[in-house]
Amino acid sequence: MAHCQEAQKIQPGKKAKIKNVKSTKPKAAAARVASAQSLLTQVVRKGRFQRVGETITVRTGDTLELRCRGKPVQWTVPSYLEEDHEGRLKTVEHEKYGVLTLVNTTGADTGEFTCFPLFCEDTDCRREYSKAAKVFVFFPDPQELFVPSSDYYEVVQLRTNWPTVLPCQVTSPEAKVTLHREYPPSEVPVDGSEISFDVKKGFTIHRPRPHHAGEVYCVASLGNLRQSSIKYMLIYVNYPRAVPAPVIQASSSSLTAGDNLRVTCSVMGEQDVAIDITWDYPGQQIGRPQYTQDSVTPAGANTQQSQSVLLVDEVRDVDQGTYTCTAHNLQGSKSASTTVKVTPKASPKPKAKKP
Questions:
Q1: Burial class for 77, CB neighbours closer than 10 Å (0-12, 13-18, 19+)
Q2: pTM of the model
């Protein structure tokens, strides 16, 4: 489902708070925000319109008609309609507004509809995200409480400290939805803090932890109807907070041919978060094998040090140059370099001849 920047909302009788906007005309800025609110209306019947709120409900089978003020405008719709709407979806541009029409609606059409006014210079147009207007539309289906899916199950990756959404999307805002674990069979507590529910998107696990992993599903109830969603296989990944920052140090920056060299690359990171270290060094150009000593050791509360030591025995002139280690984790990679100089071994002085 497409996402966009939500238009700022103003409650009647309250002043809008505009943050980080450089303007010498605050009244004009507030007027622009209010204008964005009024871009989108629903055509209730011919000649009658009403402004939309965050959500609206349209009976399945009825026609959804939205009007967005501006020229030109661009629409985004639920992913199901983007992929296959069988000619039921139509958008038309008029002189001062655009119209989206969806006929023969079904519960599968439930989702967010967004209108973007476009700013055009000649033939180059771009969306004005700050003026976007959106509405979430429910199409209650008496037979389908959940938006239909072609999948039997979905794999969801839980990342440390990254909110994760389980998209148990219902077709009716009146449905009561609960979250359940497959094994051992139990209902998962939803306290609004660790896990919360939003009827427009499903359940959110705000700070995933290892105990959240496993197979879960949602149950929706409305009247005498009770249905289960698809299964969600939750896989926990200990995800790093940041890209690793390696520190590199050579045993010496200047060596004599024949000496042994040790180049150490160290990275501090979170406990149990894997970090891979790779090397680039001058001897690679002639096929010198890479010998390393790798280790991971605790370095305090919930932290560890990953270390790789590159060993270069009996250096030669080809070993002179830049040594680079690159640390990789799931967030990305970062490199550190140092330069080593190799000087020729001094020739032994000839022995003095005896007279």
A1: buried
A2: 0.65
Angle at 289 between CA 283 and CA 290, to 5 degrees: 90
Q: Omega of the bond prior to 240 within 30 degrees of 0, cis? A: no
What is the dotted CATH code of the domain comprising 31-138? 2.60.40.10
Model confidence pLDDT, tens digit, residues 65-115: 999 888 788 889 988 888 777 789 998 888 888 889 999 999 999 999 999
Two structure tokens written together for 150: 């072609």
Nearest CA to 55 among 321, 64, 282? 64
Distance CA 274, CA 131 (A): 43
Q: Give Cα 195 distance to the centre of its chain.
A: 19
Q: Examine domains 31-138 and 247-343 and report if their fold is the same.
A: yes
161 touches 207 (CB < 8 A): yes
The length of the chain is 355
Other beta carbons within 10 angstroms of residue 276's beta carbon come to 14
Q: Which of 166, 178, 153, 270 is nearest to 208 (CA)?
A: 166
Q: What class does CATH assign to 247-343?
A: mainly beta
